[in-house]
Design a protein that fits this description.
By secondary structure, the protein is α/β, with parallel strands linked by helices. It has eight helices and 17 strands. A hairpin with a 2-residue loop joins strand 16 and strand 17. The radius of gyration is 23 Å and the shape is globular.
Length: about 325
């Protein structure tokens, strides 16, 4: 049984210090917020506090520096299902294995891949298996959505978790959604789970197969139609032309060839989600490209742009929400 004491948020630091003095504060678990209160982990029930039981305690994550000897390890890694993706550029084979073993100890994953990003139109990852199970096919779960994939074969950005959650929270049941670069279902599956009817288009046949598995895994077969091929060929042929929402989750989607085809599937009120990776001086280039094509098609636009995360040094993953009217 794991105990914690419940204190007002403003008393958190003071209470932690007192619990430490009493030698009952559990340093191995994390403080958890509970509304206007905090749950402070303890090893025994102290007098004078409201004591609660934690069914799912949250443990502190030790640093790689705590478990790796003789090498300065990378600051972090991404976890997709039971596979860890770590950029091990510059490390020797022996150092890579040492770091990978440390990641497996800390994160309880089954496999570790040296991950160098993705390339090409099909967004294939550049990876090397370092440690653990050689079979890296996995199921990644977040916010009630399950994604089936092999991160050694297809792209999955764990850092986009909050953006996927935002999709699930903002898409409404019954919306008609087009995902022009569906991958394994990054935006398709959260939208479908939220109740939307989705036309999902994906060029990479391996990703398309995993997308179909994800559709079945989430029991949304009745709401998702999967189309394998180039969206520039498929979108103009779709039966639905006036989608409520269009996802363009490919960093080259700002190119006119893609935007022109997106505009064959829109109507007044359509919302485009246009993704880009851009440095500070050109953060708005995707929005500007969408404005230009929209003007050519007789639409005015309202644009709301936001940064999702840092993509690389000086470059940000941005999303432009482009509403047509």
């Amino acid at each position: 049984m794991h105990r914690a004491v419940r204190v007002p948020l403003e008393s958190t630091e003071e209470s932690i210090e007192e619990l430490r003095q009493r030698d009952v504060y559990d340093e191995e678990r994390s403080v958890v917020r509970d509304g206007s209160h905090a749950l402070l982990p303890v090893t025994a029930a102290p007098d004078g506090y409201e004591v609660v039981t934690q069914e799912e305690p949250v443990y502190r994550r030790r640093s790689l520096k705590d478990v790796v000897d003789g090498v300065d390890p990378p600051a972090g890694w991404s976890t997709v299902g039971d596979v860890a993706l770590v950029d091990l550029t510059g490390y020797s084979p022996e150092e890579k294995e040492e770091i990978a073993r440390g990641v497996m100890e800390l994160d309880a994953v089954d496999s570790v891949l040296d991950y160098r990003g993705v390339s090409g139109e099909t967004r294939e990852p550049e990876v090397e298996h370092v440690a653990g199970e050689a079979d890296t096919e996995t199921t990644h779960r977040e916010h009630g959505v399950s994604y089936r994939l092999d991160p050694a074969k297809v792209m999955f950005s764990a850092g986009n978790q909050m953006e996927r959650r935002r999709v699930q929270e903002t898409v409404e049941a019954g919306e008609r959604v087009l995902d022009m670069f569906a991958g394994v279902g990054y935006w398709t599956l959260p939208a479908a789970v939220a109740g939307a009817d989705v036309a999902a288009v994906e060029l990479n046949p391996v990703a398309t197969d995993y997308l179909r598995e994800g559709v079945a895994l989430n029991d949304v077969e009745d709401r998702v139609t999967v189309h394998e091929g180039d969206c520039r060929d498929i979108v103009p042929e779709l039966d639905v032309t006036g989608f409520d929402r269009v996802f363009m989750g490919y960093f080259e989607a700002r190119e006119r060839s893609y935007l022109e085809h997106a505009f064959t599937a829109v109507e007044d009120g359509t919302l485009l989600h246009l993704h880009d990776a851009a440095a500070e001086p050109v953060l708005e280039r995707g929005a500007d490209a969408a404005r230009s094509v929209a003007d050519d098609h007789g639409f005015d636009v309202d644009v709301d742009s936001r940064r999702v995360k840092s993509y690389s040094e000086g470059v940000f993953h941005v999303v432009h929400d482009v509403e047509l009217h």
